[in-house]
Design brief:
Layout (H helix, E strand, L loop, with lengths): L1 H11 L21 H5 L2 E2 L2 E2 L15 H7 L17 H12 L10
Antiparallel strand pairs: 1-2
């Protein structure tokens, strides 16, 4: 995920404004650790629903759906690209399927 944010910044010349994804109930979508990503919300949706973690349902996570096709009538993310390569999205799916384990490399 951090690579995607970095790629977006490189293409657009400024960092993405993730604060646009917040709601009154859920503060700005940010993460520095795997735990924060597990708990992150965007536009009122939990990015990784607890019921998909470790249940071989990672492809059903809102985060994955948003990265592949768009979620709830919204366009594919990150909006306007550059999009995360399919192989990298598959790595995120595998991470979710494995239980969203803490990974120091995500920080």
């Amino acid at each position: 995920m951090n690579k995607s944010l970095s790629d977006w910044e490189g293409e657009n010349g400024y960092p993405p404004d993730l604060s646009r994804h917040s709601t009154a109930e859920h503060p700005a979508m940010t993460w520095r650790t795997a735990g924060e990503l597990r708990d992150a919300w965007a536009k009122g949706f939990r990015l990784i629903q607890p019921e998909v973690i470790g249940a071989a349902k990672g492809a059903e996570a809102n985060l994955i759906v948003a990265l592949r096709v768009g979620l709830a009538g919204r366009p594919r993310m990150p909006y306007g690209g550059p999009y995360i390569a399919d192989g990298e999205v598959d790595e995120i799916v595998a991470w979710i399927d494995a239980g969203c384990l803490d990974d120091p490399a995500i920080a």
